[in-house]
Amino acid sequence: MAMTLEQLNAVPLEAATRLLAGVYEHSPWIAEKALAARPFTSLAHLKHAMTRVVAAAGREAQLTLIRAHPELAGKAMVGQALTTESANEQGKAGLTECSPDELATIQRLNAAYHEKFGFPFVLAVRGPRGTGLTRQEIIDTFERRLHGHPDFERAECLRNIHRIAELRLNDKFGAVPTLGNLVWDWHEELAQFSDPGYPEKGQLTVTYLTEAHRACAAQIKDRMLECGFDEVHIDAVGNVVGRYLSSDKEAKTLLTGSHYDTVRNGGKYDGRLGIFVPLACVHDLSRRGQRLPFTLEVVAFAEEEGQRYQATFLGSGALTGDFNARWLEQRDSDQISMREAMQQAGLRIEEIPSLKRHAQAYLGFVELHIEQGPVLNELDIPLGIVTSINGSVRYLAAVTGIACHAGTTPMDRRHDAATAAAELILYMEQRAARDGNSVATVGMLQVPNGSINVVPGRCEFSLDLRAPTDGQRDALDRDVRAELKAICERRGLHYTLEETLRVSAAPSAPEWQGRWEAAVAALGVPLHRMPSGAGHDAMKLHDIMPQAMLFVRGQNAGISHNPLESSTSDDMQLAVQAFSLLLGQLAGEF
Ligand code: HGY
Ligand code: MN
Ligand code: MN
């Protein structure tokens, strides 16, 4: 019989501790201490309270907790001495059916990991969807984490212990993250489409208007129709637009959405989470036959990352009237122009200007996105309130020197383009670090047609400079450009700089940030306010309407723009609930 929070809040401490028995392996002290935070307003509140008890317990108690866990496919499993919960989990992950090779590999890894860290490798083998990782995923994770830093691994074992506890609590309370599971599965289905050359490597890359990109648009369109949207269409730049109409034909519209293109070898959730979560909300509203006193418009933006063409925020830029006709002549690495790509995709270029939204018809823009950083993951908080999006400026640079013989040219006679770039990159690193919250990155760096025995005559690279305010961004920008000029003068080189993006910092609109805060608080999740280091479509919509964002915690230290990007269906469930609460609150304001 599933337990209820009312029950847990009402019974005496000893009985309540018994009700939570087994949630943390051989460690009842955690539940017992966490119960001091009663009454719990939600399962999320209880879960977080337990993580705080562990965080406050200190290093030795944390190591004892980690050491209370059995090895994977270890002696306890073989000897059938696991706790019921651990036996269930290791069984679900197929660890009881290891081949002799798999068993030998895991036991080798157990020994090596224990030798290096002094505690067992702990992994929530039921995984981010709760249905169990494959044995290969377990082995791959084990191999990867064996190379981790001891401090990180101790924290990562604790995070996995909290994930194990979360799933055990779900079982005790009969809590199934139904909408979170749906959203998680939708990401899996969309991730089947990837640009040529990437699927063979098991990598996800979806760039603007490729075949995979068009397949994504078609699937998102079908998904919107399934969810009950009244109007769904693909617009002149490839955005997929769904409208869930208000009961009041004169009502204004709430705009939301995010992008479905990815970086090369990217993650499944960047952008897409901000599309699928509102889709799940409409699915839920439609299923219940409920209408809102405003129209909800969800846009799956076709292009944000600027991978195939230099243009970025193209999808959301079309809505703000910022589509630059000169972008049509940009060519990709196969010399295909954006205009040709659009024509091949059957897009009606002449309609692009009509995509500009009239702000007075809209209430505002809200965007939900994975955090793409480690903050929420380290705080054990599933949702974060975005206070502002950093401003950024990007360039494509080229330094030109003199290509010459690597063997005969003395070091003091060279005009080496690559060493100049290297000197600038090291300058950028320390200059950005000096601000504390600025960032500077050279993500692309190459010596075109270089040879091993030729001093580089040319070096091409990208610059990505960001800061929480435009003033700080511009100061960083000025200093980096001044340093590039000084380096080239000193080394007798020439350089070009082409600005490809300049977008202002976008503070959240207080009334919309407040709505996210009220929704998160209603879920019993602590409020953590934070800036966004990543750029988002919200910073484009910021130009024409009030906006605010909600972050969802990432797993694997919140890594992003990387195939290790991960999010649990429990966190997605909370995201759907938060979005639904925001819609409900907004409806209540009418
Ligand atoms: O680069 C960014 O910040 C975003 O992911 N496009
Ligand atoms: Mn991104
Ligand atoms: Mn993104």
Q: What is the mean predicted local confidence, pLDDT?
A: 96
**Broad shape:** globular
The CATH superfamily of the largest domain is identified as Zn peptidases
The first-to-last residue Cα distance is 41 Å
Bound molecules: (2S)-amino(hydroxy)ethanoic acid, manganese (II) ion
Helix content: 40-55%
How many domains make up the coordinates?
A: 3
The fraction of residues in strands falls at 15-25%
Explain what you see.
The two termini are about 40 Å apart. The longest helix is centred in the N-terminal third of the chain and has 24 residues, at about 150-175. The protein has about 600 residues and is α+β, with helices and mostly antiparallel strands. It is globular, with a radius of gyration of 26 Å. The mean pLDDT is about 95. The chain has helices at about 5-10, 15-20, 30-35, 45-55, 60-65, 75-80, 85-90, 100-115, 135-145, 150-175, 180-190, 210-225, 275-285, 315-320, 340-345, 375-380, 415-435, 470-490, 510-520, 540, 570-590; strands at about 230-235, 240-245, 255-260, 295-300, 360-370, 385-390, 390-400, 405, 440, 445, 455, 460-465, 495-505, 505, 530, 545-550. The chain contains 21 helices and 16 strands. It folds into 3 domains: about 5-175, Oxo-4-hydroxy-4-carboxy-5-ureidoimidazoline decarboxylase (UraD-like, Orthogonal Bundle), CATH 1.10.3330.10; about 180-390 and about 505-590, 3-Layer(aba) Sandwich (Aminopeptidase); about 390-505, Alpha-Beta Plaits (2-Layer Sandwich). The strands form 3 sheets. Strands 1, 2, 3, 4, 5, 6, 14, 15 and 16 form a 9-stranded mixed beta sheet that branches. Strands 7, 9, 10, 12 and 13 form a 5-stranded antiparallel beta sheet that branches. Bound molecules: (2S)-amino(hydroxy)ethanoic acid (HGY) and manganese (II) ion (2 copies). One manganese (II) ion binds next to loops.
